[in-house]
Target: branched-chain-amino-acid transaminase
Amino acid sequence: MEINKIQHSKLDKVDPNNSAFGVNISDHMLICVFKDGKWGEPVIMPYGGMNYSPALMAIHYGQAIFEGMKAYKDSNDNVFLFRPEKNFERFNKSAERLAMPKITKEIFLDGLLSLIDLDRNWVPTKEGNSLYIRPTMFASEEMFSARISNEYTFAIMTSPANSYYDKPLKIKIEDYYTRAVDGGVGFTKCAGNYGASFYPTKLANEAGYDQVIWTDSKEHLYFEESGTMNVMVRIGDVLYTPPTSNTILSGITRDSLVTIAKHNKIEVKEERISVDDIFNAYKSGNLKEIFGCGTAVVINRYSHVAYRDFIMELPELDEKNSFAIFLKKQLVDLQTNKSEDPFGWRYKV
Ligand code: PLP
Ligand code: COI
Model:
């Protein structure tokens, strides 16, 4: 792999331990171009702009997908990825659904390792911080016909990150707008899913909420997921999460938490959760916790969950009693090499 190193690192101006999410992009990026039916050689180069025109097909027709993953440093400066092959697999599922070429394991995973190794000084050491990794692929042919592009650019960029949200969230259960429909692209990480979610989220923000919980497109009664998170609900001592489907992104954090919870003898039910289930549990005092989980947010507690005019307030549980706090600690300890790795999820760089 060709590696063109930067002359002067931006690390003299950026403190990775004090960087807001996604603002400071690290020194290097990986680029690989698909043309004439095949992938070219990946190149690592200084991060910066590329020369495209507004005729770029990704902009007009939306063939654009991405992934989100993180690198963590332990107290001995070892750097680890977390289940990166899962992101690789999901990236190719997204690519297939968007009629884009699949990326090879060599370009995605070996490229990732070389890039993170080169920019390892960008991986934060402060607890709760990590290096966010953003692989992406977009149609980079320039022309106007509405058809599958013949050219694609794959890129990996990284950026030091602190916590995505710094407070518990007030959530609106969405009862009108839809994120994803059966047979659609909800299970992919395509750009359009996010673009389409911004307007309903903006309306929720204007009404005083931080995020929405998306519900099914037919009745708006069953929980799907929430913003950039999968959603988990604790009723009594049982942890519920909707089963993944073609309308829900199959979260790697979600899967990891389900596994960790079961490993720790917490009962987990991957079942549909209806608004009525939540109301009934709330009224009987059994609704203990609702939280979102994802790579960027890790685990974020919901303090208020509203359906139309009915607002459910969920008091904070302490460390001894909260599943969310327990699971977050288990997950982060595993990611940062503070605990055993019984599942073989850590991946040393
Ligand atoms: N759902 C959506 C829409 C997301 O953007 C994310 C974040 O990637 C998730 C769920 C959680 O997925 P993961 O845990 O793999 O980051
Ligand atoms: C992630 O958690 O990796 C995400 O994709 C969140 C991102 C859209 C900000």
About this structure: Residues 11 and 122 are 8 Å apart (CA to CA). The mean pLDDT is 96. The longest helix spans residues 191-206.
